[in-house]
Structures are given as C-alpha cells and as structure tokens.
Design brief:
The structure is a homodimer of 392-residue chains. Chain A is α/β, with parallel strands linked by helices. The first copy, chain A, is built from 15 helices and 16 strands. The first copy, chain A, folds into 2 domains: 267 residues, Queuine tRNA-ribosyltransferase-like (TIM Barrel), CATH 3.20.20.105; 95 residues, no CATH class. In chain A, helix 10 packs antiparallel against helix 15 and helix 13 packs across helix 14. Chain A starts with 20 loop residues before the first strand and ends with a helix.
Chain lengths: 392, 392
C-alpha cells in the first residue's frame, strides 16, 4: 500500500554503473570518498547521527536535513522488539514508516544484546536473550538478523557479531572472534540467497573483533575481506580499553583493509577520536555522544566544550556557536539555553542536540574538505585543541 | 547591552494613533478584533499557547511562528523564581532573553500560588508562599507583581488576584473577591506610577473573581471596568465547577464588560469550551490542554480526538491531520507517531504538541473568519461535533 502513497517517493534502484564506494582523494592515511545508495550519496568521512529506535532523540527530520545529515543509524535490536518486523513489513520498511528519505544504516543489535549481560545466552546457533522491555525470550541468529534488516530495509546493514567483553584474555578474544567469523560467513550466505524486499540494494558490512590483540584483529579483518563484504567495520572498541590501545587497534585493522572498501568505526567517539581515526583511514562514524551529552547539557562547539548549566552562562547574551553558520540563524542565546536546562524544558534538549549534531557533521564535512585540499593533518591538530578545551 | 545586539531588534514604541483594541465585526455575541502591541498585531479571537517558563513545552520558536502563533503566555510566578528578576533585567526582558519577538502575555502568578495550598499564607498585604523548587519564602504583593512583570517586559500583564477556591460559600467568595478588588486598585495605582523598563507599552488587565455567583461576578467586573484597565479577564473558572455554571459565569461577566475592551478567559479549555465562550463574547484564551494532552498522546485533529497510543494506529499510513495545511507538509504518519510514543521518543512529544497547537490556532483563526462572514454559530456547532468526537 505504501508504495502508492504520495508521501513516500520510492527511490530508484540505483544506477548499476556507479560502484558503491568511490575514493576521491587521500591525504596521508585519511581518505575522502562517496558512498552511493538508492536514497542518496554519502560523502566520506561521515558522521551518522544515532536514531536507535528510528528517530534521532529530540530532533525532527527537517532539522536533520537542514544540518545536512546524510545518513542516520538505527538499531536492529530495538526495531525488532518495537515496532516489530510485522509492522515494518506492513509499512514498507523504515524509510516509509519514518518518512526519513535519506540513507539509513542499521546496526545488527549484537552490541545491544552484549550489553544485556544477565539476560543473554550465547551458542553456536546464535544468542538467546530476554527483552529489556518485557522479559520475553528471543533468539538472534546471523540469518534472522539479516531477515530483520531486510524488513527494515536499511541501505547499509551489519552482520550479527559477538562484541567481545573487555578485558579478555587472548584465548577468550580468539574464541569470541572465531565465533564472529563463523557468523559472518552465515550472514554473507543468507544475504546472497535472498532478495531485498523493497526494490533497492542493501549493502552488507562485516564487523571485525579481536579485542586489543593485533594478531587477532588482523586475522579477523583478513577473513572478512575474503568474504567479499561491501564494507568493513571495526567493532568492540570504546568498551573500556586505553585510548592508545584503541588507536593501535584501528591502525592494525585499517592496515589490512582494501583501499576500495568503506571503513566504519562503530560507536566512537569524541571529536578527537574521530579526527584521529580519520587520519588512520576510517571513513564512517556513529556515536551517541553528541546526542546523549546534549541531553546532559554538555555542548560541543567550535570554540570548545561547554557545560551549559554552569552559572557563568547565566546572562551570556551570545549565540551558542557563531562558528556554525547553520546554527547561527536560530539565534538562541547561551543564557536562554541555560535557563531551559535549569527549568527542565524539552526545548533545551532540542536545541542542545541540534548544536552537537551540527558540530559533528561540520567536523566530518570539514575533514573531507581538508583531505581534498591536502591540509588535513595540521587542521586536525588545531581543531582537536580548539574543540576539546573548555570554552573560554 | 542587549538593545544593541543585532539578534534582538527593538520594536518601535507603537503608534500612539492606534488604539490598543479595535473591533472589526460581531456575529451574535461573538466578536472579531485586533490587539495592537509593540511586538505585533494580534487578531482576535486568539488562542495563546502556554510557555510557562518562557518556552512552549517541546516546541521551538520557528515552529510556533510557522503555525502563526501571534502571542504566547508566560508565568510571572515561574519566571520570578527562575531565572529571577535580576537575570531578566540584565537580559533586557523576556523578549530579548528568549529571542521570541512576538507578543507575550504574563499571568500574575496568582493562580500558581493558589495551587500551592499548603505552602501559602494570604494577608491584606499579599500572599506569602514557599517556592515549589527549594522551599524558600517569598511574598507577592500587587505592587511587586507589577514590578516583576516590568522586569519581564510582557506586552500584556495581569494583576495579582486571589483565585477563589471551589466550592466556596457566597460569603467566602465575596470576601475573596473584595480582596482581589483592593489588590486590583493597588495594581492600577502602581502601574500608573512607574514607566516601563524597555521603552514599549505594557497593557494591564484586571481579573474578575466571584466564584459561580452571578451577583458577585457582576459587581466585581463593574468595579474592574471603573478602574480603567486596558483589558478584562475572567479568572477562577475551570477549577471544578459544572460546565453550565462556567458558561453562565462567562455570560454574566461579558454582559457587563464594555464592548471596546478585550476580554480574556483564563485557563479554559477544550475546543468546545473555546467556541462556546467566543459565542459569549470572549476574545482571548490560554490553556495547557493542547500542549499537556499532546505529551500524554491525546491529539486534537480536525477529524476528531485521537489516542495515538491505541493499537488501531499501529500501521496507519495516513498523515496526522490532512485538514491542517500547515501540518501536512511535515508528512509524518500516524503509525510512526504511535511508535514514537510507544518508544518514549522526545520526537513524539514534539510532533503531537505541534499538532495540538496548530489545531487550537486554526480554531480561533477560523472562528474569526466565520465571525467576519456572519456564519459563526452554524460553523461552531458543526465544528464542536466534529472535533470533540473520537476520530473514526
């Protein structure tokens, strides 16, 4: 029914002549490229705002579009539980259900099930878990997670993986990574057996694990490369390891990834983390940090970090971030935003979220410009210093 | 400092040749007019969305402007406690503080202090109360409530009144009303003694009390008329009395109001209440109902009332209210809005609030058109039936 609705333009199935990923330039390890999907092109490096349940928290689609959001992330675990695959199929997939017509990437839910700890049971077949909503029992397998993501109709989707706990011994990490590899093979096989539901291509990414052990990370990533995924992700980071271990792990992972496949670092991180990972050759990012921190009153601005609840902003009649053009026209003052937080107003969450998402999108957009100009590294260093410091 | 900010255009002080209120037409008891303020014209009848703490809950200024909000209401009690008069003065008043550049009406806080019950103590001088935020003691007097509203710089402001408890005996209601009258005289006197802070006129409204006793209501309103207020309000309704008593009280109140002064029914109510009160000669309305009900998932639409959480909307691929042009372009479906409520997403509160505010603004805007056409009564009857029924 939905395909006929005038509210829901159906994208073309894409031009088969365009490869999924094209690189336009490199600057040291950093890369600039474009992903081609049925719902639009995605310039890389790119930050993907997190819309776990099919909505970026406290933002509407128009604001996302105005900030030039190219792609959002949604979560298979959450959407499987609610609204469920039956609703998703009936509505013609998440694009039509949500009327978000730009690209969507779905995480597989592996990380969320991993976070349930007490409520899950791993086996070769898959992972059994209890819903955090109502305690009901469910089984995720590599195959049915592909199926759920077919129902969602995301442009890019992730395989089911086991996010290795941290810390893990080498043996534990190896055992876990090998399970992830067997699941990855099953995921590829299932994806190749089935057609997409809604007439446009869905691209499948593998996820590398191996904790902080370079040999495991490399072995894992080489296996994934051989499986022929459309893109490759680095999972299992920002789970408690030292920053240096995280960067080293990114480095060993990207070093064995082919240049012609997009590279996605999952769930990371601060503006500094993102710029340093770009320098290590990563193309795609998601993180709850900008949206979650916004709701706690922590703002990222081009002039540094701000705790908007601080009394020093009480009568600050200045705009929130004059360094971001897209924001300035909204014209709210720091003092008013502080009042909104003090008073517990939803508008405070809305404005702070817009600021942080705008900042993250500006970050990857500008990184791309600098890569194409060949000035990425000095810009990144200066930007890290400026953004990560407390705002004066 | 703020007067010089390019973000904050300072309005002209108004054209002295324009009277505050002009009537353009009547249709039975219903009136169509225009209020002239320094921050813009307000066509009447008008609904004023409630922004208690200086922000309409879950809406940004742009959405309010797009829905053609002409004036918002804020509350003296809340703004006095937070951010406080010192911040308000430093920021140049609520318009500059919030960057809401259209008209603002402030309630005096009488109703809020009345709601504190256990925390307040009435005297001839004023009302002593404890803050609901931190338990600190404060005294509101007619004079200092004028002062706080000077600091806020609202275009229209209300006197301090005692909202008579319901039920009340005739004697209790009379005693309370007489106190309100003495306070009203003090309020007028203070307002005439002082200049406004920010260079534009502030219009002062009196508030009628008298519970559901026609003789007290008429006596009270006649006194207020004699005091020469810029406008007249009917207070102390929708506090538990029968609907018929409410309408009868509105009727006896408007019957003694002069035709050339605007009439404001405070805190009322449903679309039916509003249309019936317009027929009884009321011009201005505020109520938390559209915004509060929205956050509970109750939508007002031109096709009837909706509980968006109901399972019947689970796969409803239809727009939320095709009867409202301004809304249709947002293109969200009922099914997605239901999902957002089920999932506890802030976006659900945002979209539902926009719908209900749009509906209430459409209601008074259309009422005005029908009054000017001379077709108000049949339209109002049909509209009440349509809006108040559950949506099919």
């Amino acid at each position: 029914m939905t395909a006929k609705s005038p509210l829901h333009p159906v994208p073309s199935a894409g031009n088969d002549a365009s490869p999924f990923f094209v690189r336009h330039g490199v600057d040291g390890g950093a890369r600039a490229g474009t992903l081609h999907t049925a719902h639009g092109e995605i310039p890389t490096p790119i930050f993907m705002p997190v819309g776990t349940q099919g909505a970026v928290k406290a933002m509407d689609h128009r604001s996302l579009t105005e900030l030039d959001t190219k792609i959002i992330l949604a979560n298979t675990y959450h959407l499987y539980l609610r609204p469920g695959n039956d609703v998703m199929r009936a509505m013609g997939g998440l694009h039509q259900f949500s009327t978000w017509n730009r690209p969507i990437l779905t995480d597989s839910g592996g990380f969320q099930v991993f976070s349930l700890r007490e409520l899950r049971k791993m086996s070769e077949e898959g992972v059994e878990f209890r819903s955090h909503l109502d305690g009901s029992r469910h089984l995720f397998t590599p195959e049915n997670v592909v199926e759920t993501q077919r129902a969602i109709g995301s442009d890019i989707f992730m395989v089911l993986d086991e996010c290795t706990a941290f810390p893990a011994t080498h043996r534990e990490a190896q055992t876990s990574m090998e399970l992830t590899m067997r699941w990855a093979e099953r995921s590829v096989r299932r994806h190749r057996e089935v057609d997409t539901y809604y007439g446009f291509p869905q691209f499948q990414f593998g996820i590398g694990q191996g904790s902080v052990y370079p040999d495991l990370r490399q072995q894992c990533m080489r296996n994934l490369v051989d499986m022929g995924f459309d893109g490759l992700a680095i999972g299992g980071l920002a789970v408690g390891e030292a920053a240096d271990d995280m960067y080293a792990t990114i480095d060993v992972s990207t070093s064995v990834m082919p240049a012609d496949k997009p590279r996605y670092l999952m769930g990371v991180g601060t503006p500094e983390n993102i710029l340093r990972a770009i320098e290590l050759g990563v193309d795609m990012f998601d993180c709850v940090m900008p949206t979650r921190n916004a709701r706690n009153g922590t703002l990222f601005t081009t002039r540094g970090r701000v705790n908007i609840k601080n009394a020093r902003w009480k009568t600050a009649d200045e705009s929130i971030d004059p360094g971001l053009d897209v924001w300035a026209d909204r014209n709210y003052s720091m003092a008013y935003l502080r009042h909104l937080f003090q008073a517990g107003e939803i508008l405070g969450l809305m404005l702070a979220t817009q600021q942080n998402v705008a900042l993250y999108l500006w970050l990857t957009r500008t990184a791309r410009e600098k890569i194409l100009e060949g000035t990425f590294r000095p810009w990144a260093r200066e930007t890290i210093d400026r953004l990560m410091a407390p705002r004066e």
